[in-house]
UniProtKB/TrEMBL annotation:
CDD domains in the cross-refs: CbiX_SirB_N
Superkingdom as given in the UniProt entry: Bacteria
Keywords, in A-Z order: Lyase, Metal-binding
Protein name in the entry: Sirohydrochlorin chelatase
Pfam families assigned: CbiX
Amino acid sequence: MSDATVPLIAVAHGSRDPRSAATMSAVVAQLRTTRPDLDARLCFLDLNAPSVDRSIDAVAADGHTGAVVVPLLLGSAFHARVDLPALVAAAHSRHPQLRLAQADVLGADPRLVSALRARVLDTGLTEDDDKLGVVVAAVGSSSAAANRRTEALARDLVTGTRWAAETGFATSSDDRSVAAAAHRLRTRGARHIVVAPWFLAHGLLTDRVESALRGTPMTEPIGSHSKLIEVVVDRYEHAAARLNRKFSLSA
């Protein structure tokens, strides 16, 4: 492969809320600052521009022979498992000379849990506050296994602290909701509650959480935290190595 380092195409979800696109732009700007050697480009699956198709077409037009597509997604849901692979396959059909690899999603990487804990501490709270209850607000899934993995975030978040935590889903209105999670924390003895959004950016769902727990303080989302940048680079480098191995074997 002729590229010394292939471009990194960061793929965000997309949102009607302008805060989301602004945060994703800040993430890629921080990525470029941290790794100026990388040709990092931002695109969106839906609702914002540029699209994935247009970004891959631009990489091909610039003469690159390969690229790594990095989903800026916390979960391996339909977008990561179906939509994005289909877009990548279609792009390869348009540009057969362009070798493409899709990196793993960000997932519940311990570094991201650490970033979320840092967001809680940014509010002035301390790790030895045994009366603090943290509602980890996340997106629910139709997959019970995926929900169980997300629920484990609360346990991971409070490891090494004296906090209590429960996971609540922004898309639920039953006993898995953020309101139900806050109630469980009060039952467990929490005197004050804070919401920690397991989201990369503020948007319509974080607004829904804020409305459901009106008056409860909410931390900033993960955003362009340095730990997120570490994970993005890690996902890119693993996929780039896989792409180079595949090219070497086929050469």
